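User: Could you go from structure to sequence for me? I need the amino acid at each position, not a summary. Structure tokens:
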């Protein structure tokens, strides 16, 4: 047991399972919404530009949710904030699924977008705090749970399409799952922050330089991830003429290999270190995107998305793990972790916008095949940032 542990082992073990389930629920909801984008286009008569605008608004609201998560977690703890976020997501999914008009649909998807940011921030706050207590790499296993949820969401969408079910039968069960998970035993709020005061008398200064480097890597990861999540189904259906049953399998393949990568990620990090793992992940991701862009048929494109997931999936959890190390030792570590994770999580949505929105904008002129050049360039740029994953653990000279 780590000497840094601050909770009893049974409490910590229950919290680890609870956070794993919360990640899975988040992945389930996100995948269900994104793989229904072709159905949403048809239902409301939207074109790619309209879908891009909706995604942009969702990303803005999610970024606001991440900011709100930092405020709420500082007052009531990340566990309580996560419960509130899950309940908010359930409301948003319910309204989206039952919307009788496009205006109501926009309200529902907006509420879900706000909840998306809240859940992303608070699940990672809980996960990073648990890794700090365990004293070893466990972050990728939580993100593996997110991938499990993503796979289930993609498969459920494929099944719903095969049975010709509507949007409500797909979203309402997911909303029910969110409500159930809200009762899970998450970590409670930590002790009040303490320790040496920074320049403003409010604890250690934020390590902005290291945080910016990690945030840049997270942006680039989410450029590729959001492009795959937002446009893979549409790419297969509109460009490669895949059926409504086959098109969601691209995202399912991406999530399946992401799961495998994240399941072994912690073990590989312990043996090889985060820098080597991040570099290798980027190289594999580049190969996957080349396959996607060159694919003449759905099968090869699905294989490309699978290769992309196998390589790139570990980058996000390792970024949050590195940010957690910046929090330093006790006292007040839990509060510093929450603050750093909330700040880092905002880079998530910049990547979401650049990946989902810019890919969509480029596709309006050159087609989605050309649009996937955007995530390819992003993954290439991760390579020179890999060293930041080592310096984040030890840097003491970047406080501004």
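Assistant: Here is the amino acid at each position, in order:
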């Amino acid at each position: 047991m780590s000497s840094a542990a601050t909770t009893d082992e049974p409490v910590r073990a229950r919290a680890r399972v609870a956070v794993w389930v919360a990640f899975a629920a988040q992945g389930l909801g996100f995948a269900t919404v994104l793989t229904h984008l072709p159905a949403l286009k048809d239902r409301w008569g939207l074109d790619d530009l309209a879908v891009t605008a909706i995604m942009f608004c969702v990303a803005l609201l999610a970024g606001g949710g991440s900011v709100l998560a930092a405020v709420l977690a500082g007052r009531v703890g990340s566990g309580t904030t996560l419960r509130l976020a899950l309940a908010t997501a359930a409301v948003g999914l319910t309204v989206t699924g039952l919307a009788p008009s496009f205006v109501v649909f926009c309200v529902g998807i907006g509420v879900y977008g706000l909840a998306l940011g809240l859940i992303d921030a608070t699940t990672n706050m809980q996960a990073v705090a648990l890794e700090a207590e365990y004293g070893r790499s466990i972050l990728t296993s939580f993100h593996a749970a997110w991938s499990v949820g993503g796979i289930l969401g993609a498969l459920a969408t494929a099944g719903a399409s095969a049975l010709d079910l509507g949007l409500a039968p797909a979203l309402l069960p997911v909303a029910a799952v969110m409500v159930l998970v809200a009762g899970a035993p998450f970590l409670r709020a930590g002790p009040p922050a303490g320790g040496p005061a920074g320049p403003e008398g409010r604890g250690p200064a934020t390590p902005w330089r290291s945080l910016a480097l990690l945030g840049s890597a997270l942006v680039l990861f989410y450029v590729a991830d959001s492009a795959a999540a937002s446009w893979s189904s549409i790419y297969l259906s509109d460009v490669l003429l895949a059926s409504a049953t086959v098109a969601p399998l691209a995202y399912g393949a991406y999530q399946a290999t992401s799961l495998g990568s994240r399941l072994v990620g912690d073990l590989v990090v312990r043996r090889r270190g985060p820098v080597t793992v991040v570099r290798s992940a980027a190289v594999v991701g580049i190969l996957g995107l080349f396959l996607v862009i060159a694919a003449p048929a759905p099968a090869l494109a699905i294989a490309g998305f699978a290769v992309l997931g196998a390589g790139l999936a570990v980058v996000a959890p390792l970024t949050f793990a590195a940010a957690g190390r910046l929090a330093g030792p006790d006292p007040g570590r839990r509060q510093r972790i929450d603050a750093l994770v909330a700040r880092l999580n905002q880079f998530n949505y910049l990547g979401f916008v650049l990946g989902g929105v810019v890919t969509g904008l480029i596709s309006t002129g050159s087609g989605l095949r050309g649009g996937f050049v955007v995530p390819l360039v992003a993954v290439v740029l991760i390579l020179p940032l890999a060293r930041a994953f080592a310096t984040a653990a030890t840097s003491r000279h970047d406080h501004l």
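One structural detail worth keeping in mind: The longest helix spans residues 333-366.
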